[in-house]
């Protein structure tokens, strides 16, 4: 798969096994404690920078460590940064590559399902700063993204679920046929197989297609936030880290369907199909928190438009963005957050 994102060209190579990466230039591999062994399978003689794992280490200190190791390894501008890991490592490595000597070459090897279907495609880089997620970052797509499914064999089930939620999200956006194709994949325990490979290909292609029209997130890319306004509010009100991102996104997608249904946008049958699919994938839909608190979090969400609450809701074929303008629409939102989901 080859894509152009603005001035950048990206090739995505999806395979069952680990690729052999041979380079004609010096490189720095960046991994975390859990992916350093995978990195060793891909590249033999390159310098290796191992970071502590987890979102709590997606910070400036880690970015600085990568830059410092790059300098120690003597990297020049035509050299490579290679990120081998989940979304945290991909975002950090891509950020470092984008600023080191004003931009080096970048290869990403996502090793979580979430990073394959989302983080490694589309060129958003960054790290958390002043307790705000992804406050600092750049747009800097990798020149090559390798997605070896073999990397997923050591992935814990909880991490699989984070990726499955994003896979479902993109399938909803790209249409009913893909949702139907996805069905056999969606019952835990999850593992890699040929169908998964096909689905990752489709999701990566869909996301890359959207991003190639809107690298800098000024329009169409917003669709990829389906379920996320609800998810961020749930994650925040329940205490960051207590509900996994995938659980929150899955819950958020079902709430977005319910809002869409109440607004007359999401067909009943589609909302029901999505809910059934998400339930059978093992996600919990029973979270219930104070709706006023959640709405306050939504109002401070960085993605709100001109101070108004915006949501992506599924429609007949894909999804679109609605802006809640008046009291009665806000009441609908409150009902969705308060109420049980109708069958
Ligand atoms: N840039 C983007 O467009 C974009 C999109 C979505 C998410 N993200 C970012 O991605 C991050 C989340 O990514 P994530 O869910 O991959 O989390 P992660 O990178 O923290 O990985 C999750 C855990 O799995 C471990 N791990 C990774 N690969 C493994 C493997 N193959 N076997 C065993 N363990 C493995 C990691 O060490 C970590 O402990 C967030 O910071 C989010 O902001 C970025």
Description:
The chain is of the alpha/beta class. It is built from twelve helices and eleven strands. The protein has helices spanning 36-42, 60-72, 87-99, 113-119, 157-174, 176-182, 194-213, 228-237, 245-262, 268-280, 291-299, 327-338; strands at 2-5, 8-15, 27-32, 47-51, 80-85, 105-110, 127-129, 132-136, 144-148, 309-314, 319-324. The strands form three sheets. Strands 1-2-9-6-5-3-4 form a seven-stranded mixed sheet, with helices on both faces. It has a two-stranded antiparallel ribbon with strand order 7-8. Helix 4 (113-119) packs parallel to helix 7 (194-213). The chain starts with a strand and ends in a 5-residue tail after the last helix. It binds nicotinamide-adenine-dinucleotide. Nicotinamide-adenine-dinucleotide (NAD) binds at residues 32, 34-35, 38, 53-55, 58, 85-89, 91, 111-112, 114-115, 118-119, 122, 124, 134, 151-152, 154-155, 159, 162. Residues 32, 34-35, 38, 53-55, 58, 85-89, 91, 111-112, 114-115, 118-119, 122, 124, 134, 151-152, 154-155, 159, 162 line the site of nicotinamide-adenine-dinucleotide.
Keywords:
two-stranded antiparallel sheet, 12 helices, binds nicotinamide-adenine-dinucleotide, 11 strands, 343 residues, alpha/beta
Write the layout of secondary structure elements.
Blueprint: E1 2-5, E2 8-15, E3 27-32, H1 36-42, E4 47-51, H2 60-72, E5 80-85, H3 87-99, E6 105-110, H4 113-119, E7 127-129, E8 132-136, E9 144-148, H5 157-174, H6 176-182, H7 194-213, H8 228-237, H9 245-262, H10 268-280, H11 291-299, E10 309-314, E11 319-324, H12 327-338
Parallel strand pairs: 2-9, 3-4, 3-5, 5-6, 6-9
Antiparallel strand pairs: 1-2, 7-8, 10-11
